[in-house]
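User: We ran a pulldown and think these components assemble together. Before we commit to crystallization trials, I'd like a predicted model of the whole complex to look at. Sequences follow.
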Amino acid sequence: MSYNDRVRGIYQQQLSDIREAGLFKQERFIHSPQAADIEVEFPSGAKLKKVINVCANNYLGLSSHPEVVRAAHEGLDARGYGMSSVRFICGTQDIHRELEQVVTEFLGTEDTILFPSCMDANAGVFEAILTKEDVMISDRLVHASIVDGMRLCSAEHDTYKHGDMRHLEQKLQQWKEKRLRVIINDGVYSMDGDAAKLDEVVKLAEAYDALVFVDDSHASGFIGKTGRGTHEKCGVIGKMDIITTTFGKALGGASGGCVSGRKEIVEMCRQRARPYLFSNAMAPVIISGVLKAFEILKGSTELRDKLEENARYWRSGLTEAGFVLKKGDTPIVPVMLFNAKLAQNFSRDLYAEGIYAIGFFFPVVAKGQARIRTQLSAGHDKHHLDQALEAFIKVGKKYNILGKTEEEIIAAYGL
Ligand SMILES: *Cc1c(COP(=O)(O)O)cnc(C)c1O
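Assistant: Here's a predicted model for the assembly, 415 residues in total across the polymer chains.
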């Protein structure tokens, strides 16, 4: 069949439906390195505008950190550009194994295997270690990549209500005849910014003979006293059977991910995980940058401490101004607007004020739960946050939502 007018029409119709529903995502072109201050072309063709970025996953400000950049340059010179191979054929350098060992030590696990991304880690891990005799019990708000990984796995799948330990316990009882039970959580939930109660999850896992899986992509490097992650915050280092995480957020922000945990599980991934077996090895230049990121983190908690302080300052500033926030104590601070159109307009007006923050709405979050998700960084200084607060307050006044409750905002704007 040729790509004729009929076929073209099918896709044009679908795209126009997406636009009409107000759900079309337009990319903004950044002309500078990723940082607190960026230069953006938006809309396409517009003059460059300097804005403050409050929506990157650049939690520790390492994305353009001079030491990380230098280490990447040195790695590029020493080990070349690409591997042109998957790991098990001829794609493993000594630095791949070195990074696996560094991650293992940092997370307090038994072993680690790198993947091209955390999406790939999640896509590969379940199928590699579970069969029809097993069950995966996941929190209802886990990341999309976990959902896809579970789809690729033949094990039974069930869910429990977000953060609801009683519901989880019921599910564990219900599935007690299965060979293996795996409880599946995000460490920090990316849309709401709340953290999993991993201490309680571990208790249930011990009581019902289950394994614990956590995806700590929004936690590795900065959550917990020394930034090890949600398991450190909850006092359960060593009790996680499987941790997946990304190097594409706090840990330098380039790309790559891993499965870290029990050594037999990691070995099963090396033998069986399809994204590991059939996708190229991480580039040496990125490995070198990630190794430097870990070195910086192991040397000092300065960056995660600054991030924590920034998040506290930002959260209390917005609260005082009278915004409705999602409760939490992470650097993800969602400013709730409920209505999708309002969230889009709010984001547009913030941009006019020099603040880059994106509106999130269905299907990324539930209907009637639209928001501006703000994310703090150790790359932010007080003046960035003060300027951003000023802009939020100005736009908040324009839409008359300051000091208003959830019900009042919904009454004014609808869902
Ligand atoms: C970002 C994210 C991923 C994907 O990580 P990549 O390395 O970019 O593929 C997976 N899981 C969670 C929870 C994430 O937030």
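The domain at 66-299 is CATH 3.40.640.10 (Aspartate Aminotransferase; domain 2). That may be worth checking against your pulldown data before setting up trials.

User: Thanks, that helps.
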